[in-house]
Amino acid sequence: MESSNRRRTIFNFPAADESKKYTERKLIGYSPQQLYTVVAGIEHYKDFVPWCVRSSITHQPSADYLEAELEVGFKLFTERYTSKVTLHKPNKVFSAVADSTLFDHLDSTWEFHKGPTPTTTWLTFGVDFAFKSPLYKHVATVFFDEVVKRMMNAFETRCRALYGPSHAHRPAPQHRPIAA
After folding, report:
1. Is 159 a residue whose pLDDT tops 80?
2. Strands 121-131 and 175-178, sheet pairing
3. Distance in angstroms (rounded) separating the CA atoms of residues 36 and 132
4. For residues 69 and 27, what is the distance between their CA atoms, to the nearest angstrom?
5. For the ranges 93-107, 135-149, 160-174, the one whose mean pLDDT is highest
6. Pairing of strands 121-131, 103-114
7. What is the DSSP string of 32-61?
8. What gap in Å lies between CA 124 and CA 121, rounded to an integer?
9. What start and end residues bound the annotated signal peptide (predicted)?
10. How many Å apart are CA 164 and CA 167, to the nearest integer?
């Protein structure tokens, strides 16, 4: 009988790549401080981030470090996880999942660099994650691009709600994924 190195998973889904990675650089019409405030305001994620039903800061021993608990949900399922967040005001926010039954790992990085005018910022966003569940890994493979677009749009919409229209004067969005 022939041996196979192919890994079988529950529900016979093919084994997806363990990790999904995405990086994007984009010119945004808000200042680095404004973007930093929105991204670092984790306690408000429940108000605007897709699928986030609860968000709270559980521990903040210093101005540049905190732990947050987020609950994400879609239809009948909800999952809760804890992230450790490092804040480099006003240029960077990094978070890593510390306690999760949902994710094997989830790291995100937001970097803010001054744009060509004082009211613009070059935003670089990166995410690297893997689900623990083979089913969720398969779903992530199918819907990954849509999820990332919705997340980025949610943060831009939040900026508009807090600070008014974008100050970026350009004919077309400068939006491009960066190969990981």
Report:
1. yes
2. unpaired
3. 30
4. 30
5. 93-107
6. antiparallel
7. HHHHHHHHH-GGGHHHHSTTEEEEEEEEEE
8. 9
9. none
10. 9
Q: Where are the domains of the chain?
A: 17-41+88-178
What gap in Å lies between CA 125 and CA 142, rounded to an integer?
21
Rg of the chain, C-alpha, whole Å: 18
Q: Taking CA 45 as the corner, what is the angle to CA 71 and CA 105, rounded to the nearest 5 degrees?
A: 50
Side chain identity at residue 138, one-letter code: H
Q: Which of 135, 119, 94 is nearest to 11 (CA)?
A: 135
The more confidently predicted of residues 110 and 77 is 110
Q: What is the pLDDT of residues 65-108, one digit of tens each?
A: 999 999 998 777 788 999 999 999 999 999 999 989 888 999 99
